[in-house]
Amino acid sequence: MEYNFEFKDGGICAAKGFKAGGTYCGIKKPNPAAGTANAKHKNDICLFASDVECNTAAVYTQNKVKGAPITVTKRNLEKSGNKSIAVIANSKNANTCNADGIEKAEKMCELVAKELGVAKEQVIVASTGVIGQMLPIEPIIKAVPILAQGLGYDKNAEAATAIMTTDTVKKEYAVEFTVSGKKCTIGGMAKGSGMIHPNMATTLNFITTDCAISAPLLQKALSDVVRVTYNCLSIDGDTSTNDMVCVMANGLAGNDEIRQDGESYNVFRAALYQVMANLTRMLAKDGEGATKLVMCRVSGAKDEDTAVECAKSVVRSPLVKTAMFGADANCGRILGAIGYSGADIDPLKIDVSYESAGGVIQVCRAGFVIDFDESAAKEILLDDEITIAVNLNDGEHGITAYGCDLTYDYVKINGDYRT
Amino acid sequence: MEYNFEFKDGGICAAKGFKAGGTYCGIKKPNPAAGTANAKHKNDICLFASDVECNTAAVYTQNKVKGAPITVTKRNLEKSGNKSIAVIANSKNANTCNADGIEKAEKMCELVAKELGVAKEQVIVASTGVIGQMLPIEPIIKAVPILAQGLGYDKNAEAATAIMTTDTVKKEYAVEFTVSGKKCTIGGMAKGSGMIHPNMATTLNFITTDCAISAPLLQKALSDVVRVTYNCLSIDGDTSTNDMVCVMANGLAGNDEIRQDGESYNVFRAALYQVMANLTRMLAKDGEGATKLVMCRVSGAKDEDTAVECAKSVVRSPLVKTAMFGADANCGRILGAIGYSGADIDPLKIDVSYESAGGVIQVCRAGFVIDFDESAAKEILLDDEITIAVNLNDGEHGITAYGCDLTYDYVKINGDYRT
Description:
The structure is a homodimer. Chain A is α+β, with helices and mostly antiparallel strands. Helices cover 32% and strands 25% of the residues of chain A. Chain A has helices at residues 68-80, 101-116, 138-150, 156-162, 215-228, 263-285, 304-316, 318-325, 331-339, 374-381, 408-415; strands at residues 18-23, 45-60, 83-90, 123-127, 171-179, 182-191, 204-209, 244-249, 293-301, 351-356, 359-365, 368-369, 385-391, 397-404. In chain A, the strands form 2 sheets. In chain A, strands 1, 2, 3, 4, 5, 6, 7 and 8 form an 8-stranded mixed β-sheet that branches. The longest helix of chain A has 23 residues, at 263-285. At the A-B interface, α8, α9, β12 and α11 of A face α8, α9, β12 and α11 of B.
């Protein structure tokens, strides 16, 4: 991960040959001004497509209760040999645990296939929102032709806003890199704010690239990077039924196709990591009700799994999360969360510090809480981006997990989400 | 579990030959009236003892970060061959992650041993409260002689209030039963409100009985019952560093000592179950910030482990907990939590209903959310004791897990617990 690429605008449209669009079709409730001349609606459906067929990789939620779109997308990619051209996604309704879910998810693919003149197996479908409410298909039937005709190479924001549910900001990131002398671009968009505790994937994440890379290598890079990005994210410990990350590579950058390990693959993987790590960070910071980004950087682990287990346990702990909300340097809760993580660690080797733009303060040495300046610690914890730095002093491996604080607003948002 | 015994007053003093006491020694902060003639203090230390030596069983937290009192108690019971006479416990300070923790926990045992004229290995020590703050030993040195002199056979409430931290009510329960023609009694007290997600044990639970039972059978009964009571409890998913349940049996009821499986053992086990299940229920209902008790009763599981995994996952889910706070019949979150529980279940067999004193309403059949009367569901969920009834339709096993809702007050209580 020694590469560093520059941020680029454009999200899923940053790479060559990807056009997108989003609109409001009526799945989300209209806002209070609805019906008036100035009525504004939040986008609730989006479509994006590549000019040419894409090698495609995807990872899906490990939740045994799976959304119908997950089942249909998985089946489509199997049938098409991991080739895709377009993605259709809606928000506000997860199309999950409904008796007609599969039928409607397939219908969405058929509508897109017909408009774009492609096979329905080349269409990826995704839905996010409330589970267990029938998805209204009529608005989608009306919206797809309009979306298909309106696709644009600069309409990434229309799409990125259409997948937002309780998200307060859209999440896009892209970078440029070079493979075999050709400039390549990789970009993505993500949604998610609650029900986030990914296992193999998280919420909805769509990545596009013009880099030529074979489907198996693309899958390898995705699976590899997911492990250290989305899978190290926890907003509330709830793993969604509709989590999916997919990467589409259309090869329009003109580089020699990456077909094996080596420098080109490493550059691609690093660029993918940078996009996914930044989207992960954005997801954590926009966690439901969150006032701050809380990261746990574990170092000195004997292996990567140990680091992941400890770091995720800390950012998942409600007691750590509420302490961070209260800017309370309650280090015992961090040690407690490491202790029950299931990781094989030696409690008497653990060091803990708090870090933010405001400074660094050590609070635990070799498993014992030490005397520290409470007011200095409070000052650091009042920042809106905090790192809990844990050194297990037991090896050379490390990882960062991403989370947020637990606040009154999380309770408020989720006390009555459906209405 | 076909037995049913009547509730009896007296908590840990209900059984013959157990005396107790509690006082304020200065570990908790004095209340606002402190220093005045009417100053009242909340008890923060307790002592209880049996007139004769007890066969003793205990289970401890599986957290790798263990409180010093856990280490010392475990060592004492090993040395004494599972014989104990007295318990000393304090609240407000967990004596955990402190460099001098072991030394101070041992000192507490020595102080009690000296006053009662017993071996220090016959003393159980427990602490609960903030992790990582030095335990002040001076107030304890002063308090122990006073406690030892003031022990009474009716002072169970003094002790039960002394172990409270954020608990809003004391938790005691006792029942009477008959073994070999002799009336026996078993009773207990518990504390706990947050940092509760037991793994093999929970928080502090002390059980006393005058029933004669061998130490190995006592341990067997305890381990067995813990699995289906405390280990099915989750307030916030955080497993404490200081969890402990111990049972002391002094044999003063005069029954033939229970030394093997059989009817006597079954009666004892059932009585123990009733005490522990009721204490578990009290712990859940008094969860930090909770406005209601939320139980998940899983039936139709292919084995007990499957039932436990599903039920615990549901009561642990922050999204289920906030929905219960909002009386929102959001069944998708329940299905989601079952799906990610790790249990091997068939999503398309699951039925879900909500139950309370206000009625019963089914919301999911064979994995799909069904049409139901939202206002009737809301009425049921406004009750302060709710059961989420899940039928996996896949076997004959069942279990009930205990939890509570997630509220603004949980965030408030834990945003700055230490001050």
